[in-house]
Amino acid sequence: MNLLEAMKERHAVRNFTDEPLTAEHIRSLSGSIAELNAAHGLNIQLIHNVDDAFGGCPTHYGRFSGVHNLVALIGADDADAPEHLDETIGYVGETLALETVALGLDTSWVVLHETSEHEGAWTIADGQRMPAAIVLGHGARPGRAHRSKPAEELGLVSSGIGSYANAPEWFHAGIEAVMLAPSALGKQPVQFTLLDDGHTVQAEALDGVQAHLCLGIAKLHFEIGAGAEHFTWAD
Predict the structure, then answer these.
(1) Where in the chain is the domain with CATH 3.40.109.10?
(2) With contact defined as beta carbons under 8 Å apart, do 65 and 76 qualify?
(3) For the Putative nitroreductase TM1586 domain, which residue ranges apply (predicted)?
(4) 206: which residues sit within 8 A by CB, 6+ positions away?
(5) Distance in angstroms (rounded) separating the CA atoms of residues 29 and 32
(6) Nearest-angstrom CA–CA distance, 27 and 18
(7) How do strand 200-205 and strand 190-194 relate by DSSP bridges?
(8) Is pLDDT of 146 > 80?
(9) Which fold has domain 151-230?
(10) Pair 97, 33: CB distance under 8 Å
């Protein structure tokens, strides 16, 4: 299963069985985490096969059970622009989530409170923050597809292009991929605009809970759906 197939297959799962991760699961995910940490300067950590992967931390939203495995998404914070870490964590975390689905496992995004005062197995250094985490394992029941905003609300075009219908097929494919992206409370606080030159895309976070985290997730989906060779991101 490639990432495009995993994106279509992925649905949030919050209840897991006690079946442990295999050595191959751990090896593959640990390798991906090491590569992504090096590439993005993060401190992501895999917690696996423990009694309570949340370490006693309360969740921001949703009821979970049987959570024995977790990817702690940790990185250095920028006090002047905390949204930068949120967006990076969204992008990199969703990369790991899709790779996890491709391995045949189930996942869900989760935001935890009190992550610096916990009983968990992760380590947060001074100046670092954990905006979110990904739970993973063998789902007790299948996840369900979520509702999405219409494509025309998520994808806009500049006046020189005319209308969404006039946008190239790669832009439509990118927006269809964004429609599949998970977001906080399902609100999808993001917007993608194709500019007049026909190949530059402006991605924006709108008002909403964890909007920049959602933007990072959605940008990865757009890249996978549209094909990175077809466009460039606006500065």
Answers:
(1) 3-137
(2) no
(3) 2-226
(4) 189, 190, 191
(5) 5
(6) 19
(7) antiparallel
(8) no
(9) NADH Oxidase (3.40.109)
(10) no
Contact (CB, 8 A) for 101 and 9: yes
Place of tokens 């380590």: 123
Chain position carrying tokens 């995910």: 29
Rounded to whole angstroms, the Cα distance separating 126 from 142 reads: 39
Tell me what pLDDT residue 45 has: 98
d(CA 33, CA 184): 23
What token pair was written down for 49? 């096969």
CA distance 14 to 63: 7
109: β partners: 134
- Using one digit for the tens of pLDDT, what is the confidence trace for 21-61? 999 999 999 999 999 999 999 999 999 999 999 998 989 87
Residue range 143-155: mean pLDDT, rounded? 86
pLDDT of residue 148: 87
Q: Which fold has domain 3-137?
A: NADH Oxidase (3.40.109)
Residue bearing the bigger pLDDT, 133 or 185:
133
Are 133 and 94 in contact, with CB atoms under 8 Å apart?
A: no
Checking DSSP bridges between strand 106-110 and strand 45-47, what pairing results, if any? unpaired
- pLDDT reading at 130 higher than 80: yes
Q: How far apart are CA 170 and CA 176, in angstroms?
A: 10
